[in-house]
Every structure is written in C-alpha cells, then in structure tokens.
Amino acid sequence: MHATTHHRDLYTVEQVRALDRRAIDDLGISGFELMSRAATAAFACLCRHWPQARRIVVFCGPGNNGGDGYLLARLAHGAGVAVEVIELSDASLGDAAAARDTWQRGAGITHRWRQESSLPPADVYVDALYGTGLNRAPEASVAALIERINASGVPVLALDVPSGLNADTGHCPGAAIDAQLTVSFIAAKRGMYTGQALSKVGVLHIDTLGLPDILWQGMPHDSALLEATHLPPRARDAHKGDCGHVLAIGGDHGTAGAIRLCGEATLRSGAGLVSVATRADHLLALNSARPELMAHGVHGPQELQPLLERADVLAVGPGLGQGAWGHALWLTALDSGKPLVLDADGLNLLAREPRRFATPAVLTPHPGEAARLLDKTVAEIGLDRFDAARALAQRYGAVVVLKGSGSLIANPDGRLDVCIWGNPGMASGGMGDLLTGVIAALLAQGCSAWEAARLGVGLHARAGDVAARHGERGLLASDLLEPLRLLGNGLEHV
C-alpha cells in the first residue's frame, strides 16, 4: 500500500535507492530485513490473487531481486506449497547471497537455467530475475528464458519490476516479462506508469514494507500521478459571458470532422461560447449537425482577425493542414498573443517554424509530433518519455501533454504528472481533437495552462474509460462527449 502522505508521488530508481539507504542508515533496518519484508509482502499478494496455487516456480537472478525471490520461495515452501527455483547463477553477493543460503538450507529444489531446459509446470511463475538496476537489454540466454516464460501461458508475479523493463522510463530495450501482477516495493517507480510498461506490469501493487512516513519526509520525488478532479459548480447567476469564448481554428478541405469534434468537446466541457473558423464549404454541415457552434467560413487572415478579437482562448490545429491556408491562419493566431491549445498540424507547423511562447499555451503532441518538435526519431522519444516531455516544455515555454499510454503533462518549471486512466480503445481517429477542445474550454473558464492540461487530460481519459464499458474495440471519439459532460460536473458514478 502507499503511505498516505505521498500516495501520488513517483520516484526515479536513484531516488528509491536513496530511500532504501535512508531506511538502512537512519532507521536501522537491515538490508536483509527489507528483503524479508519484500518477500513476505509479495507472497501475501500471490496468495490473495491465486489462492488455489499449489505449485510455483521462482526464477532468481544473482542480485537483490533474486534475493527477494529466494526468500519468497522459502516462505511458500514453509506454507506447504510445492516450490522450485530456477537460478541464473550462484554468484549472489551480500544480502542476496544470504537469502540464497536460507533457501538452500531448507533443502528446496534448485535448477540452473540452461537454454535447452524445459520449464517446470506450475500454477504461478515468480519473476525475480532482474530488479530496477537493469537499464539494458537482457543477455541472449536470459532473453530466451523470458520469452519462454511469456509463451508458457502460466500467470506471472513480478517482484518490484517485470524483468527487462526500465523502471525509470517505461521502455523495454529487449525482451521483458509480461506479468499479470507486479508487486513493487517502498515507493512507486515513475516508469511503471507510462509507455511499454502498461503492457508489462499487469495489476500494479505498491507495498511500502511497513516503513514509517518519516522515511519520505524531505526526500524529493520526480513526478506525480493525476488525481480525479473537476471544476467547482458554477455560480447561480452565471451567464455565458462568464464561461469564456473559445475560437477553434482548423478544418481544411475534407477535414470538417476534426474541427467539429474539437468544437463539440469545447462545448461539452463548459465553454460559454464556441466559434469555429473553417473552410466555407463546411458551414452547412456544421450548422446542421451542431447549431450551438458559431461556424464561420474564412479565406485568410483578414476574415480571421475579427474572430480573434472576440475570443478569449484559441484551439488551433485540428484538420488545419500545412498548406498556404492553414499556415496563414496558424501564423495569425499565434501572433495574436491569445492563450491557446496547439495540436495536430498546428504542431507540425511549429516544428517548421519554432517559437517560444510568452502567453499561456498548451501543446498536445503524440510521439510522432514530439519527435518533429525535438528533431528526434519516434524511437528516441520512446526511450525516455519523461525527458522528452520536459525538453518540449523547456524548449517552447509551454505546458506539454505527451500523449500515449500513460500520457505525461509537463510544465516548463519541471513539474510533471502522469495520467493513470485511458484504454487501447482510444487509439482511434478524433481523440486528440477532443482533447484540444477540452483543454481549451478549461482555459476559457479560468484555469491556468497547467491546471487546464492536468484536468483536461484526466477528464478525457476517464471519459474514455466510461465509454469503453461497452467494449474498447469500435470506440468512437464522439462516444466520449456525454461522459465528458458528466465527469466535468463531478458526477462520478456514470
């Protein structure tokens, strides 16, 4: 369980090591005692999740993660569970060597891993191969073992982190364990909540090993998990002018749907007035489908200017295109100095013509757009999403939402939050257009760029989870509009 005073805090691997050292040096808790507590917590979790398990196999590496595994094996053996240990080597040192000796003295069954070996049958496999110290691809023989475990069909409990996953970044440089359950110790590691980690950790349980809250006092953390929040109720005498006027700019030929979705999400998220600047041939469709949107056909900057003057906040990019029309509107919008949300082709144009924002701005790139904005490859963005999000915020002087599994929200001052909601059904067209509208609406209602991005990402992802109750596959962006309205009003049980 999380300690109550820091339940949202996320830590780097080095910060967790500092906590571990503090527990040993300042609280007088030995490393072997911490290892024993980790094994006890993990075995209890195994028993809760697989109460019928009568045979387990524990895969142990030579480090402290393997030490946790040996002690778990000893506990399981003492509880009458049939246990086998498969170890990578006998080269354990320090507390891990003591843990191995404890298992060996109990006359437990131990095998050395060889690639030609077959895996023993079991009800549960326990992964104690590598801990948080691994930041490279596993060597070939261990990679073969990991792939064999993943292909076995046996459920896996991972200790601290699934082996092969970088606990700092969420990236897997090579083979990595696919766990059904991960028990992580002392504190939440930031990389477990984003990127490839979400397909590896399964159900994630944090156990603080009974350590007192004083351990965390004065210790820095890296980032935090988003909380489920919403705006307070409106004043009873509120009118539409109090709730902000958003101008959504985009929808080149053939992309009216993008700007409509953006505009509708802005309305459903509480903006008092929403105007749309788009191609004239889209007006009939927009007015017919959503008359609450004030749609205007604009041919260029001259027709956009009066709309800009009336707006409080801009949403720029959905369906904008990168041609002469889109570029002219983009340049005029950015030169207006209005607070804005920039997405899609608005970001692609920014990559071509970089600028640092002096007024409140939120950028919402997916990894491909982030790569262009940082002049990197998509693969390089995936290596460390935390570093990429913070680099974008610093470079452009804007709050940045790096979208994807476990979206990140980064502030230029270094603060960063991680979204814990969302689902694979949201990997479909139009979802980003909605998010642009949601954040713009929150800006218009008085939120700072940081507050609007955090709240908007959370509402958008939670609405996606509500909509996915009818199934993830086939989820449409427009399915989120009604849940957005409900969640934005604090109606949690929808």
From TrEMBL:
Cofactor: K(+); Mg(2+)
Catalytic activity: (6S)-NADHX + ADP = AMP + phosphate + NADH + H(+); (6S)-NADPHX + ADP = AMP + phosphate + NADPH + H(+); (6R)-NADHX = (6S)-NADHX; (6R)-NADPHX = (6S)-NADPHX
Pfam families per the UniProt record, alphabetical: Carb_kinase, YjeF_N
Residues holding AMP: K403, G404, S405, G406, S407, G432
Binding site for K(+): N65, D127, S163
Xref: CDD domains: YXKO-related
Residue ranges constituting the YjeF N-terminal domain according to the UniProt record: 16-217
Cofactor binding, per record: Binds 1 potassium ion per subunit.
Residue span, YjeF C-terminal domain: 223-491
Superkingdom assignment: Bacteria
Binding site for (6S)-NADPHX: 64-68, 131-137, 160, 258, 319, 366, 433
SUPFAM superfamilies for this protein: Ribokinase-like (SSF53613), YjeF N-terminal domain-like (SSF64153)
Keywords linked to the UniProt accession: ATP-binding, Isomerase, Lyase, Metal-binding, Multifunctional enzyme, NAD, NADP, Nucleotide-binding, Potassium
Enzyme Commission numbers on file: 4.2.1.136, 5.1.99.6
Entry-linked HAMAP family: NADHX_dehydratase, NADHX_epimerase
Cited function: Catalyzes the epimerization of the S- and R-forms of NAD(P)HX, a damaged form of NAD(P)H that is a result of enzymatic or heat-dependent hydration. This is a prerequisite for the S-specific NAD(P)H-hydrate dehydratase to allow the repair of both epimers of NAD(P)HX. Catalyzes the dehydration of the S-form of NAD(P)HX at the expense of ADP, which is converted to AMP. Together with NAD(P)HX epimerase, which catalyzes the epimerization of the S- and R-forms, the enzyme allows the repair of both epimers of NAD(P)HX, a damaged form of NAD(P)H that is a result of enzymatic or heat-dependent hydration.
Binding partners and assembly: Homotetramer.
Stated family: Belongs to the NnrD/CARKD family. In the C-terminal section; belongs to the NnrD/CARKD family.
Protein name: Bifunctional NAD(P)H-hydrate repair enzyme
Organism: Dyella lipolytica
Lineage: Bacteria, Pseudomonadati, Pseudomonadota, Gammaproteobacteria, Lysobacterales
